[in-house]
Write a structure and sequence with these properties.
- It is a single chain.
- The chain is α/β, with parallel strands linked by helices and 347 residues long.
- The protein has eleven helices and 18 strands.
- Helix 9 (282-288) links the parallel strand 15 and strand 16 (291-294).
- Its cofactor is Zn(2+).
- Pfam families: ADH_N, ADH_zinc_N.
Amino acid sequence: MKAAVLHRYDETLGSGRFVEYEDWPDPKIESPTDVIVRIGGAGVCRTDLHVVEGIWRSKVQVSLPYVMGHENAGWVEAMGSAVTGVKVGDPVICHPLVTSGHCLACRRGDDMHADESRFPGINADGGYAQYLRTGQRSLIKLPKTLAPKDVAPYTDAGLTAYRAAKKASRHLLPGEFAVVIGAGGLGHIGIQVLAALCAAEIVIVDRSETALKLAQECGAHHAVKADGSELERVLEITRGQGAEAVIDFVGEGDAVAQGLAMTRNAGTYYVVGYGGRIELPTLDMVTSEKSIVGNLVGTWPELVELMALADRGLVHLKTREYKLQDANQALLDLHHGKVSGRAVLIP
């Protein structure tokens, strides 16, 4: 098969050529519960850029060369002898984790913290290719209204945004505020999820006028440009108190300190983006009673819930399509901020 293969790390992302489009071994059925998926779409994620930078080397064991791509959807191509519930040709979306289902975390539905797991695109060959090996437990059959190429990025970007927004929505009441920092590939989904799940007023903060416009189209009630005065503007909107929930899809630079400052006393700051540091005196934590909550992708049931929202038209994913052989261009465009929404590779 053809694949876009990562051969070397580029810590500065300065080479301009991150992957090579080449012949690569077809994935094989190795377990009775394995499924081979013919890729219909593979999302291009900022995490992929972090993989190229080598940031994930300390977290996972992977040997180069290998195939990135952890946001995948397509059609069942082949399956192991123990697989039930799907048949060849079924359109499916793939939860990013492949787990056995036997450990306590799996049995509780908390796949992201399974004792043993495989993460295609992170620590195993992923979907920047024509075919992908995954597992039966990872598959969700798609309704006729949703095409694989249109939903592939939901498996990480959408699912991560959904998980954070769902957590926040459980505590948000009419008359309260939710601030979303970053209206890009994750943020524009998080805004739609918040609008679908709660009645709080949604405030979006971003430095891009294009992103702010997209955010308002997605349901944000207030748009604030990150130009140095964003904290003052958010406090003005929230009547000087800050927001009950702040979801930070940036997680680096000034966003962290700003996000915590935008969170009202007894409110919650949800961290999604990463790369920065949280520094807060313990006295401030005690006196403000603010909560800081991390978010790591999401569970299989949450992906089912997100597909239900998409099927009903309550969440729409803005995508830009690239051919698989143009994976370098997609990664470069993402790196340079030229992708509105999510980039998707089509084999």
